[in-house]
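can u do me a favor
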């Protein structure tokens, strides 16, 4: 009595109980047993029907016992019947007696076993070299098997015979026909049983496993977190020094010999002024928990490893209370939609079928898997949460930004599926109503900008697809963040540091290293300036600021932010650093002092940018802000290595390093390095 609700939905073991109870309460009399046998028996000699008879024996015997008080002989007779009569039983009997047609039942696919150390790539190549055209491959890791799909019109019987004569790495292959529903169920069971086992092996609650993933240091006192991050920085500086020493074929410079085992002096790590609820931006995913429940939160596990469970953020230490409130609001919304759909999904059944449902469910209850027992009804809704593995579903992502002044931006991304524009508009209006009611109840801040994005692509991230304003000023879909006494416009896709208090400490320290102070005549080069936060925050301490950025939209944002704060000594160049650095420095007066602050992406900058910095003779001082020092380590080495044809220009000398903690409870830590040269 199992049903599939959707392509990859698991077998339902929860619905039969409710269905059976409702149907039995209105039953007048059970169906005569001989009638059941007569209606359900297949034509003699039909192999498929005989197989169905064997499969249904136990279930029907139990069903008969539940529906009537029969004798032992009657129960034995019932065991011969494959199904209890009724609309569904009639349909199943008709399907069982239908002639087997591989082209219809297999959907142009075969299930092939016998592979040794396979991968999708080498299996596909193997079939192509054998003259077999393949349109798709699905790997079943538990038994090293593959579901092989062939082009429309392919002779599946011929493919079946041919593959059964082939060997893969000296092992014979075995191909067999499989009904597509069987393939779907097995795929789902293989995937969920494997992943569920990983999550049930641990005795830890799900929220603790999530915290261990997104904030792995959360169990440590903050002093110990700082010490661990400092130790990590020391290790990176030690490795950088070793790499730099290895670049010198002859005598290393005196300054390098005078250093200890670190690249340069390391000062104590600057602590974050706020350790809990400090993030001003979070991206939540819609999906399903390990128990199969629709959930709004963070990905539990690595998607690249095939793990796509979602866990609630309600107990994550780095998420603010306001953001948790938004996540809870979205959670209630999807729960309500699934619940309403579940109520509508219950359909009438025959009394005898209900009896079988009771018995079948009671037998299965002991072995019922949580995710299998919960998902069927949940995913019947036409607006389910998005399944990253199956790339299907409606609700995808929610990005929440929060400012110091407690204004919020919420961007909800959905997959339009095949819904009409009217249906999508109704869903957007429903979400708008939910947020408006929450604002009236003061569950979330009243200053909320709610945006709606439809994205049909496969990317599990926000894109540049258009957004529709549901709540807020459609002419100005931005929020405004405060840094020091300055305001910055933040668009949905803008980069902005996630910890405002710690960012102010970071920028103040960088300005100190750069020698910037009130009345200073230094020209600041804001390299990789982004939306201009560094240069604008230091503009009052510099003679002028020149921002360099390759992204046009970021340059436009930087210009707007400078104007917003009445900053007049900032100018911006939209170009690659390696293409314009010489020209910028040549435009300076020979007597002008210049310092560069470089704040690149995680991976650092390219060799061309390093070369441009080294060959800019006017540049004597450089502050390097790295958000991932391990990835940027080669930049540190290349700035300081001896002059060669590949590394022209006079090398810099590392003087000072210091960590700044922008991410309490997590492993990352900003590293600021100060370089000089004569």
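np, heres the sequence
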């Amino acid at each position: 009595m199992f049903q599939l609700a959707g392509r990859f939905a698991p077998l339902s073991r929860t619905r039969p109980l409710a269905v059976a109870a409702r149907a039995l309460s209105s039953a007048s009399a059970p169906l005569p047993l001989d009638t059941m046998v007569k209606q359900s028996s297949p034509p003699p000699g039909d192999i498929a029907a005989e197989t169905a008879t064997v499969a249904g024996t136990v279930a029907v015997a139990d069903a008969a016992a539940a529906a009537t008080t029969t004798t032992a002989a009657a129960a034995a007779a019932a065991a011969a019947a494959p199904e209890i009569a009724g609309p569904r039983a009639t349909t199943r009997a008709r399907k069982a007696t239908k002639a087997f047609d591989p082209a219809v039942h297999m959907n142009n696919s075969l299930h092939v076993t016998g592979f040794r150390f396979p991968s999708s790539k080498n299996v596909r190549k193997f079939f192509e070299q054998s003259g077999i055209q393949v349109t798709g491959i699905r790997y079943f890791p538990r038994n090293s098997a593959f579901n092989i799909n062939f082009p429309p019109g392919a002779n599946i019987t011929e493919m079946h015979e041919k593959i059964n004569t082939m060997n893969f790495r000296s092992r014979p292959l075995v191909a067999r026909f499989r009904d597509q529903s069987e393939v779907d169920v097995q795929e789902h069971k293989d995937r969920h049983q494997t992943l569920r086992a990983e999550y049930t092996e641990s005795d830890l609650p799900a929220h603790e496993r999530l915290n261990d993933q997104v904030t792995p240091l959360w169990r440590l006192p903050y002093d110990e977190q700082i010490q661990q991050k400092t130790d990590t920085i020391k290790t990176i500086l030690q490795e950088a020094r070793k790499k730099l020493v290895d670049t010198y074929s002859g005598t290393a410079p005196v300054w390098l010999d005078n250093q200890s085992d670190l690249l340069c002096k390391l000062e104590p790590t600057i602590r974050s002024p706020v350790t809990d609820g400090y993030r001003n931006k979070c991206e939540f995913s819609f999906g399903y928990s390990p128990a199969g429940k629709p959930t709004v939160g963070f990905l539990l596990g690595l998607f690249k490893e095939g793990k796509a469970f979602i866990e609630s953020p309600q107990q994550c230490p780095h998420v603010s209370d306001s953001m948790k409130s938004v996540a809870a609001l979205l959670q209630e919304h999807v729960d309500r939609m699934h619940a309403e759909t579940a109520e509508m999904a219950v359909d009438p059944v025959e009394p005898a079928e209900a009896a079988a449902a009771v018995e079948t469910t009671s037998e299965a209850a002991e072995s019922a898997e949580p995710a299998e027992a919960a998902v069927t009804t949940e995913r019947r809704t036409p607006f389910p949460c998005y399944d990253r593995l199956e790339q299907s579903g409606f609700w995808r992502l929610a990005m929440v930004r929060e400012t110091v002044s407690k204004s919020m931006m919420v961007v909800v991304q959905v997959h339009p599926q095949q819904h009409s524009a009217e249906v999508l508009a109704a869903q957007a209006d429903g979400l708008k109503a939910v947020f408006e009611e929450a604002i009236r109840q003061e569950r979330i801040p009243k200053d909320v900008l709610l945006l709606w994005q439809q994205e049909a692509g496969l990317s599990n991230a926000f894109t540049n697809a258009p957004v529709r304003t549901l709540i807020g000023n459609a002419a100005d879909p931005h929020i405004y963040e405060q840094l020091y006494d300055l305001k910055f416009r933040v668009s949905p896709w803008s980069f902005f540091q996630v910890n405002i208090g710690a960012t102010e400490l970071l920028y103040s320290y960088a300005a100190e290293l750069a020698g910037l102070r009130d009345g200073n005549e230094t020209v600041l080069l804001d390299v990789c300036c982004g939306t201009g936060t560094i240069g604008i925050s230091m503009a009052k301490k510099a003679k002028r600021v020149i921002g360099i950025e390759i992204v046009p939209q970021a340059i436009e944002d930087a210009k707007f932010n400078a104007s917003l704060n009445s900053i007049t000594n900032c100018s911006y160049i939209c170009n690659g650093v390696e293409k314009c650095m010489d020209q910028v420095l040549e435009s300076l007066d020979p007597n002008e002092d210049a310092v560069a602050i470089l704040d690149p992406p995680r991976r650092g900058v390219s060799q061309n940018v390093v070369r441009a910095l080294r060959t800019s003779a006017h540049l004597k001082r450089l502050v390097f802000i790295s958000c991932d020092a391990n990835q940027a380590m080669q930049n540190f080495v290349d700035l300081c290595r001896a002059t060669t044809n590949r590394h022209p220009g006079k090398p810099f000398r590392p003087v000072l390093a210091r960590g700044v903690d922008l991410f309490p409870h997590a492993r990352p830590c900003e590293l600021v390095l100060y370089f000089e040269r004569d």
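Confidence is low (pLDDT under 50) at residues 1-106, 345-378. hope that helps!!
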